[in-house]
Amino acid sequence: MLHFCEWLEKNPWIVWVDSSIVISLILEILHYSGFFLLVGSTAIVDLRVMGLAARRRTPAEVANQLFPWMWTGLLMVVFSGFFMFAGDAADFYGAITFRIKIVVVVVAVAFGLIVRQYVPRWGQRPSIPASAKIVAFLSLLLWIGAILISVEVPAISGVG
What we know:
mainly alpha
């Protein structure tokens, strides 16, 4: 994998993207905006499942309205994140904080998929099950963790 990362860093297209201040700024804006869309819409759905937001609407209604924004945000994050990673791929690959961030994000996305699959069923019951509220709470914690570790990647590892 390290060889792939080193190759990626030397790829002429990646070098061109990484050396452009304007493109780098656009990628950062896309990355942060994508995280705002992803985490913000996820948080609203999770808070609805926990019974703390949008109580006048069913969880399925809230989820159906916000899930397209979540996936748009995820697409923006993955796209921009790849190019941000590629410029310093070998350094990021060696940074334990970056690896932790990726694991936390992947687990958070998995929790998002669980919520997406089960939210219609949860909303049909007289009350939302405690297990659903725990899943939503863990989803929120994972996204908060992803944001916090993302901020610490450059601070701890010096990469980024």
